[in-house]
Amino acid sequence: xxxxxxxxxxxxxxxxxxxxxxxxxxxxxxxxxxxxxxxxxxxxxxxxxxxxxxxxxxxxxxxxxxxxxxxxxxxxxxxxxxxxxxxxxxxxxxxxxxxxxxxxxxxxxxxxxxxxxxxxxxxxxxxxxxxxxxxxxxxxxxxxxxxxxxxxxxxxxxxxxxxxxxxxxxxxxxxxxxxxxxxxxxxxxxxxxxxxxxxxxxxxxxxxxxxxxxxxxxxxxxxxxxxxxxxxxxxxxxxxxxxxxxxxxxxxxxxxxxxxxxxxxxxxxxxxxxxxxxxxxxxxxxxxxxxxxxxxxxxxxxxxxxxxxxxxxxxxxxxxxxxxxxxxxxxxxxxxxxxxxxxxxxxxxxxxxxxxxxxxxxxxxxxxxxxxxxxxxxxxxxxxxxxxxxxxxxxxxxxxxxxxxxxxxxxxxxxxxxxxxxxxxxxxxxxxxxxxxxxxxxxxxxxxxxxxxxxxxxxxxxxxxxxxxxxxxxxxxxxxxx
Length: 482
Hints:
Elements: E1 9-11, E2 14-16, E3 23-27, E4 34-39, H1 43-60, H2 65-81, H3 83-94, H4 98-118, E5 125-127, E6 135-142, E7 145-149, H5 157-169, E8 172-176, H6 182-195, E9 202-204, H7 210-219, E10 223-229, H8 232-242, E11 248-252, E12 257-261, H9 267-279, E13 289-295, H10 299-311, H11 331-346, E14 350-353, E15 368-371, H12 378-381, E16 388-394, H13 397-405, E17 409-410, E18 412-416, H14 420-429, E19 434-437, E20 452-453, E21 456-457, H15 462-467, E22 470-477
Parallel strand pairs: 7-8, 7-10, 8-9, 10-11, 12-13, 12-18, 13-16, 15-16, 18-19
Antiparallel strand pairs: 1-2, 3-4, 5-6, 6-22, 11-21, 14-15, 17-20
Helix pairs in contact: 1-7, 2-4, 2-5, 2-6, 3-4, 3-6, 4-5, 9-10
């Protein structure tokens, strides 16, 4: 197979540029250098992708679950065969440390293998009928043509988590990847092509004009479902736009995750879990711990232990051996981190570690620990999306729950305790779609991923992920009496 570095959009099984030959640069966030220029598509290309998806749907939906399963499994295998190449490409455009990039490739591939298996489990039902001369049957059928809009922080996994179940169900899909990270999406399409994904079943429409492309997807009555991962504000906008054509929606939106450390926690486990949750991908994940709530009795010990661990994190370009913290994705992300740290310092926060742009310049910011955080600080209400751990103090379990739930979002939450009764009690009281107990990394293909409140609708991964791409049809067989 040829190189995975592709520069054209992938529409209807063909690699093609924008109609007016427009292109946009892709930057390495570690250096600021342009590493590629890709097709800058618009409304016309989006409409072409929709048309190709509609044509491909008529045949793809008719394939057997076993055929679809084999294609997804082969796609998974090709990803793992090219894991190192994919990881290096990902690090080049996204910035995360190479070790994390390798992990993302495996995580992304896991959704293809999982849904290769789930494709054969889209079971219907035969229901005891209400009449002696009838049979009641419930069928599961694919939704149809799907649109997916994906973010830059996990540019492979956020695509396979949508494409895997869509193809397993018999749907076709048009993907609009993030402007910052189109190369990973195009590499994935190249591997899908080699795996035998038929023309038109998966299209990748690259663009820096998101309103034009996404607008075409949202207006189209052919597109029956949208799967979106991104900010809550954008998710609300897409919900409004979807109303005209009554699209099915899967929305994985913003979070403001609490991480609670109770006094009975194993301190070493809590510190390791906090590092994993807060500083993975330089703090740029939707499930990052954003507010760290620590019981007063151990607050000072935990704060110093965490600060000491954070000071040891190596800040460097992702390709450097031992790099633990890469650059922020872009200038806007860097500016938000600076603003949150300055606001916290002005409102009485104590900097225990970091607190400054890194000496190597560019988009690198020191991993930071801030003590004496308060609800009045901007970082209490807004996702920082950067390497800043803010420590809040609490006295009682009830206070911790109240602080943890004091947000409009509810994607993930974490807490550390050795009390089994408390573990059950707190897990039930936290208003979040996912809860980690004595663990800082909870994402896996075998469990449902998603939030409550303004963190979104629907679930990805697990058996629930397939259901998001299936419609339920009731069929009544009458007149069956002898």
